[in-house]
Design brief:
The chain is mainly α. It has 15 helices and no strands. 80% of the residues lie in helices and 0% in strands. One of its GO terms (molecular function) is chromate transmembrane transporter activity.
């Protein structure tokens, strides 16, 4: 019996690693697109959790600083396979792009890939994936007029006030509105989140998160060890950023360009490469670390910038389930989930749509790719290849 349990756990962990690695090699388009890929693979296809649990996890990660899509992936891994499952989900999703960016920093420093046709194709794929995810989530999370209205105001506010704190403010307001509107609602689709982490361990993760945030800058000033200085810079950047990888860019630039770690030209070249690879944009840290200190620097930078995300999601998940069982919290979460749909729609327009759909042929290709996902049920990796190859051919003949 123990052997069967061990074998089942091994199979679960192996599945987490393989699925997350596939996502890490095919998930182009930034954090909102990643949530679309996760929704397709984890929720629609494998049904590792229900729609509402996924939406609640997304809402939680919108509150937390750091790379939201990576935290959602880590959270899914933890709920599926424990702490080690979360680690494997992180490694699978993150390290394909980490490896590519480290190699890029070491071997292809001045190669311009920004104008390649297949890069534009991958942006168009992201449009189709996000549209498909929003369509599915909106049906589940905004079924009535009240929640449609909350989503509408979230769209308008997100587009009118595009700041790092806007999303957090929208979610707080939506939670308060939901608390008032749905306080007498009975949640019929509630399902318990399985979080195989003790609250004591979770509390330790939160304490460690804040302790490192306070102690690392102090130790940095007392020590001449440059690896420690680099770790502190990346850890702080990963701890203090709301809004995803694009927001972390100015923080990283201020940390490393003026100090001479890397030139402005090298910084921008690496950022262009980070746009072209799948996975989280925070892996840009791997490029900076490798450009400054070789592949070892790339690994140190990656660990440092993602460590806050891991500590925060592991530290909050066990308490999150208790909160969402509270009758008052259920109404608030109904409002928050509707707002998340609105935030996704706003992000779908800006920057995903505006940076990808530049001509009628782009829209035509999106329509085909969306149909492949939504109606023909084609696997996402086939859709990715179709978009990349299709745009490459169009760029040649056009």
């Amino acid at each position: 019996m123990a052997k069967d349990t061990h074998n089942n756990r091994f199979k679960t962990l192996l599945e987490i690693l393989l699925v997350s690695t596939k996502l890490g090699m095919t998930s182009f388009g930034g954090p909102i697109a990643h949530l679309g890929y996760f929704h397709e693979e984890y929720i629609r296809k494998r049904k590792w959790m229900d729609e509402k649990t996924y939406a609640d996890l997304v809402a939680l990660c919108q509150f937390l600083p750091g790379p939201a899509s990576s935290q959602v992936g880590i959270g899914i891994g933890i709920m599926r396979g424990g702490l080690f499952g979360g680690l494997l989900a992180f490694l699978g999703f993150t390290f394909p792009s980490v490896i590519v960016l480290i190699l890029f920093a070491l071997l292809i420093k001045n190669y311009d890939i920004g104008s390649a046709g297949w890069i534009h194709g991958l942006k168009i794929v992201a449009v189709a994936v996000v549209a498909h995810a929003i369509f599915g989530m909106a049906q589940k999370l905004t079924p009535d007029l009240q929640r449609k209205t909350i989503a509408l105001f979230a769209v308008v506010a997100s587009l009118m006030w595009q700041s790092t704190l806007t999303q957090v403010g929208i979610i707080i307001v939506a939670g308060l509105v939901g608390l008032l509107l749905f306080k007498s609602e009975k949640e019929t689709e509630y399902s318990k989140i399985n979080v195989p982490i003790s609250k004591g361990f979770a509390a330790s993760c939160l304490i460690l998160f804040f302790a490192l945030l306070i102690i690392l800058p102090v130790i940095r000033e007392l020590s001449p060890f440059h690896w420690l200085a680099m770790f502190d810079s990346f850890y702080r950047s990963g701890s203090l950023v709301f809004g995803g990888g694009h927001v972390v860019l100015p923080l990283l630039e201020r940390e490393f360009v003026p100090t001479g770690f890397l030139s402005e030209e090298s910084f921008l070249a690496g950022y262009g490469a980070a746009q072209a690879v799948p996975g989280p944009l925070f892996t840009f840290a791997a490029y900076i670390g490798a450009a400054a200190d070789g592949w070892q620097g790339g690994l140190v930078a990656t660990i440092a910038i993602f460590l806050p995300a891991f500590l925060l999601i592991a530290g909050t998940l066990p308490y999150w389930d208790q909160l969402r069982q509270n009758p008052k919290m259920k109404g608030a979460l109904m409002g928050v989930n509707a707002a998340v749909v609105g935030i996704l729609i706003a992000a779908f327009y800006e920057p995903i749509w505006t940076s990808s759909i530049l001509a009628p042929i782009d829209f035509s290709l999106v329509a085909v790719l969306f149909s492949m996902l939504a109606y023909w049920k084609v696997p996402p990796w086939v859709v990715v290849l179709t978009g990349a190859i299709g745009c490459s051919i169009l760029s040649i003949i056009g």
